[in-house]
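An example makes the point: we let one protein speak, the chain in one-letter code, the fold tokenised, and here it is:
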Amino acid sequence: MAGRRHTTEEIIGKLREAEIVQAQGGTVADACRRIGVTEQTFFRWRKEFGGLKVDQARRMKELETENARLRRAVADLTLDKLILKEAARGNF
């Protein structure tokens, strides 16, 4: 069954709601049931977004996107460099 994609703002809001449930003496299972996700998803979200504010999480996603774009650019340039180096040696 395909899951639903949550936005960063929704994830942070749900994590805060789960923290409230746990602070009131509830268990992790209770908190997960209340926010409507599995425990595995809860722990994954907490590992990635725990302690972040919405603007910090948004900036982190922007940086990850930019980092991926730059990595692709470096890979393309490295490949071009290797091709030119091989062509300059005369090995066709």
